């Protein structure tokens, strides 16, 4: 009966967001309170569970997500993103423009949130389309596939970062595994798939013709690349150092401190303020204004993550999480595949990759305690499933349709299929890694 109540609550959550058009944070709070009542959690403990869940979930995430937003905003505002793309375009030449754009999307997608990355990169895609008279969909899909993969798979993006916390995974190891899985997923969904849909005609709207920053005002090449990728470099380096010196007790405390994602993001943001901010002629006041605007951009994302934590805590305190874990553990399906399917179903119903990933985490997390599944791979499996088949209830679907001026039919044939390829290829990569690392 308890499991049935949970399923009904998930259905209600989906209906509130899709049919009721309710904000996801409010929907999570309503469903969390209702779940507590239906699961017979003592009335006086329901709100304390909600508050504890929100606090525990956000505690380790606020700094990482906000600092990540600050770095991404400065990378965009300073022109570093434009500099990276122009360097890669010149290096690859006309023949390999797709690959140049794909790599640009991947590099820029790591510090930038998806919506910001999309709006920032689409003018670049259109500038190539206008200049070389190439099909817009053919040129655009590789870059957008790269943005989508970084959004779903890689920290410090909100959903994978929150999943790392909920599953007790390692931010650095998840990033390393994610890079291994992301590259083939991007190649298959980008350059390879775009050849199949090259014939689809798209006339980008004149409204979106690019107005790039003056080249003389762009930061240097090394500055742009190093600053944008600094969190990746630092996370990778500190993870490797922690592994190499794991038996050295005298260094254990220091290594633990320097490998903390929050500290790494803080160092990256401070360095960016000097290199892309003051070093590019901006005042510290203007840099801090950019950082302040960035935090406003992620406010609702943080609330949605908090809401998912509230639901998870109610399920945990009621004891139903253990029942679900026990029931799922007896299913003849690998936990990684099961988690991917759950995330995929919720994504198709709700449209939001973030909501799909976080809702799945609340259900599947207890299963990890009774299985030998690698938590880092579980993060990636849920992340891949949360990207499955974007369609008319997803804002990304409409962004692509309107910017590329496509029909709904052609958007389904291009964007929706691309997202599905990313999800399926991501799962394949997770299962291959699982077979290797056991």
TrEMBL record:
Q: Which Pfam families match?
A: GntP_permease (PF02447)
List residues traversing the bilayer.
26-43, 55-76, 96-129, 136-154, 174-193, 225-245, 257-278, 298-316, 336-365, 377-400, 420-437
> Topology in the membrane?
Multi-pass membrane protein
| Entry annotated with the keyword Transport | yes
Keyword Cell wall biogenesis/degradation included in the entry's annotation? no
State the UniProt keywords alphabetically.
Cell membrane, Membrane, Transmembrane, Transmembrane helix, Transport
Q: Where in the cell is it found?
A: Cell membrane
State where it is primarily located. membrane
Entry similarity comment: Belongs to the GntP permease family.
- Protein name, per record: Gluconate permease
């Amino acid at each position: 009966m308890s499991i049935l109540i949970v399923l009904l609550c998930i259905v209600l959550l989906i209906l509130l967001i899709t049919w009721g058009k309710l904000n996801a944070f409010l929907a999570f709070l309503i469903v969390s309170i209702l779940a507590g009542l239906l699961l017979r959690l003592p009335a006086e403990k329901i709100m304390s569970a909600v508050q504890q869940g929100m606090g525990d979930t956000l505690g380790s995430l606020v700094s990482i997500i906000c600092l990540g937003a600050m770095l991404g905003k400065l990378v965009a505002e300073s022109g570093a993103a434009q500099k990276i793309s122009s360097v890669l375009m010149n290096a690859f030449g006309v023949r390999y423009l797709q690959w140049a754009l794909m790599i640009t999307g991947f590099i820029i997608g790591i510090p930038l949130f998806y919506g910001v990355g999309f709006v920032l990169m689409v003018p670049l895609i259109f500038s190539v389309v206008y200049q070389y008279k190439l099909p817009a969909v053919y040129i655009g899909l590789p870059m957008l596939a790269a943005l989508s993969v970084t959004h779903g798979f890689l920290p410090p993006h909100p959903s994978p970062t929150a999943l790392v916390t909920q599953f007790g995974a390692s931010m650095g190891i998840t990033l390393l595994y994610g890079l291994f899985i992301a590259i083939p997923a991007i190649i298959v969904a980008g350059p390879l798939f775009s050849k199949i849909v090259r014939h689809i005609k798209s006339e980008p709207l004149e409204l979106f013709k690019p107005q790039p920053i003056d080249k003389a005002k762009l930061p240097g090449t090394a500055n742009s690349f190093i600053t944008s990728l600094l969190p990746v470099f630092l996370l990778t380096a500190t993870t490797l150092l922690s592994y190499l010196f794991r038996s050295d007790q005298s260094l254990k405390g220091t290594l633990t401190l320097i490998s903390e994602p929050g500290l790494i993001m803080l160092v990256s943001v401070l360095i960016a303020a000097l290199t892309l901010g003051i070093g590019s002629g901006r005042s510290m006041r203007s840099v801090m204004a950019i950082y302040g605007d960035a935090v406003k951009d992620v406010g609702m994302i943080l609330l949605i993550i908090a809401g998912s934590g509230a639901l998870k805590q109610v399920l945990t305190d009621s004891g139903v999480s253990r029942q679900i874990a026990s029931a799922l553990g007896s299913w003849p399906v690998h936990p990684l595949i099961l988690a991917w399917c759950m995330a995929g179903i919720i994504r198709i119903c709700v449209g939001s990759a973030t909501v799909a990933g976080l809702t799945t985490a609340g259900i599947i997390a207890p299963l990890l305690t009774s299985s030998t599944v690698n938590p880092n791979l579980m993060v990636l499996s849920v992340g891949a499933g949360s990207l499955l088949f974007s369609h008319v209830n997803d804002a990304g679907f409409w962004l692509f349709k309107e910017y590329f001026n496509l029909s709904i039919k052609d958007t389904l044939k291009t964007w929706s299929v691309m997202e599905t390829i990313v999800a399926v290829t991501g799962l394949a990569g997770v299962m291959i890694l699982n077979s290797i690392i056991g």
